[in-house]
Each structure stands twice: as C-alpha cells, then as structure tokens.
Amino acid sequence: MTVSECRSEDVPALTASAGALFAEDGGRHDAFMDTGWPAREGAAYYAGLVDDPDSLCLLADGGAGHLVGRLRKPDPLRPDAVTAVLESMRVAPERRRQGLGRALFEAFVAWARERGANEMTVQAYAQNASALAFYEAHGFRPFLVTLARS
Ligand SMILES: CC(C)(COP(=O)(O)OP(=O)(O)OC[C@H]1O[C@@H](n2cnc3c(N)ncnc32)[C@H](O)[C@@H]1OP(=O)(O)O)[C@@H](O)C(=O)NCCC(=O)NCCS
Fold this sequence. Notes:
By secondary structure, the protein is α+β, with helices and mostly antiparallel strands.
C-alpha cells in the first residue's frame, strides 16, 4: 500500500475520487448537494489545492483512496487554535476495511503535526454511519452539531 502527495499529474485521479465521494455521500445524504460540481469545477479546484502550501492532497495506491486536508486560516475568536481540517476522504468500495483509510489518516496527522496544528476537525453527515465509525475509531468526538430542518 502506498500513500503519496499529489502532483499536478495526479489531479485527474484526485478529482475522480472526490467526484465519486460527492455521488456516494453528498448525493445520498444532502438533497441540496450539487453532485455535478466535481465534473464542472473539480479539476481547477483540486489543481489549486495541490499547489497550495497550506493544503494536503493525498492518493492511496494511485487513486484507490484520497484525502484532502487544509490548515484553517487563523480565527481571531479562537486565537490559540491551529486547526487542521480533514476536508474530504474516500476509499474505493472494493478496497475498504483493508487499512487504506487508516494509512491516509496517519499521513494527515503527521502533516498536521509538522504544521504545528493542535486541533483536527472533520464534518460528516449524521447518517453516514461508516464515516462516523471510522472517525470515532481515530479519536474524534462530536464538538459542534449542525441541526437542520426544511
Ligand atoms: C470512511 C472510509 C474512508 C474508511 O476507509 P477504510 O479504508 O475502509 O478504513 P480502514 O480500513 O482504515 O478502517 C480503520 C478502522 O475504522 C473503523 N471503520 C472503518 N469503516 C468502518 C465501518 N464501515 N463500520 C465500522 N467501523 C469502521 C474500524 O475501527 C476500522 O478498523 P478495523 O477494520 O480494524 O475494524 C471509507 O469507509 C469510505 O470511503 N467511505 C465512503 C466515503 C465517506 O463516507 N468518506 C467520509 C466522508 S466524511
């Protein structure tokens, strides 16, 4: 199993994995999610992140999984927090429960530590039980809860 930082030639594989995540997760759990966004805008967005020193774009096994992490901009309301945000991660269905997610997450933790982060956050849909189980297994606990109604 290999985990590598994306270079510009990896943007198509990253965009494809992120697009599959939109379809599987946002498309299923959020009636307002625009699942066409990755095909329209994803390549430019992820190319920008690959070039951004405050972002981390990882691929596992050349595209079987991905993780995107970002350092949050300083927040004057929480001046002592240095927050690494796990923006997005996915492992292809046929490769799940084989440790790829763990390997991606460990690389994210190492990157966050190098950048001086003292906090990590991630958002997940309340109905995404497998993602919540994965994050809980890696030490995350609920902090802020978004409540929604139509
Ligand atoms: C969440 C996800 C990335 C986990 O990737 P993975 O490669 O399957 O995870 P790992 O094999 O490294 O699992 C590590 C641990 O997390 C927990 N875990 C992972 N998937 C789980 C599940 N479906 N149910 C319960 N626990 C789970 C377990 O503790 C597991 O350890 P174990 O297999 O020894 O029991 C993967 O399920 C996925 O891509 N899901 C769809 C996309 C998604 O929801 N992404 C997150 C959006 S917020």
